[in-house]
From TrEMBL:
Phylogenetic classification of the source organism: Bacteria, Pseudomonadati, Pseudomonadota, Gammaproteobacteria, Lysobacterales
SUPFAM superfamilies in the cross-refs: Acyl-CoA N-acyltransferases (Nat)
Cross-referenced Gene3D superfamilies: 3.40.630.30
Protein name (record): GNAT family N-acetyltransferase
Pfam families: Acetyltransf_1
InterPro entries: Acyl_CoA_acyltransferase, Bact_Acetyltransf, GNAT_dom
EC number: 2.3.-.-
Species per Swiss-Prot/TrEMBL record: Lysobacter koreensis
PROSITE patterns xref list: GNAT (PS51186)
GO molecular function: acyltransferase activity
Root EC class: transferase
PANTHER family registered for this protein in UniProt: AMINOALKYLPHOSPHONATE N-ACETYLTRANSFERASE-RELATED-RELATED (PTHR43877)
Keywords, comma-separated and alphabetical: Acyltransferase, Transferase
Domain annotation N-acetyltransferase: ranges: 12-153
Amino acid sequence: MGRVAASLDTTPTVRPAEPGDAADVATLLETLGYPCTPDEARERIATIHADRRHELLLALVDDAVCGLIALSLVYSLGRGADVARITALVVAPNCQRQGIGRRLLREIESRARRAGACRMEVTSNPRRVDAHAFYHGCGYADGSRHFIKLLGD
């Protein structure tokens, strides 16, 4: 991941993640606060590849991975249609504020529309104030309150 220049002069390309991207995916997930080994990332990439209702896209500049976004389509009984959920979005710290997150968001929104989703949803930790400003700046509004319960052994 240290391969990306500090300043980007080109528009990032976006492509689906492949098993060979596992080390970069693991690094980006760690940046987001979700520790992950390359082997675990490889398994997660394989899981996403095996389910057409999930996507994992990478942003690249000069063939170096600099961001990722993951999407899950979930049927909403109340809406009678699929809802697209962003389950991860992260840009490498040295590449932030250069349009990469917006590029990933636009691409995943386009794919969600083509898949027939009726809306996009994203959950963001309350302490990620910069992320909230980013989503608001991209046209997202505050929505329902999100509740969680960890299911342990």
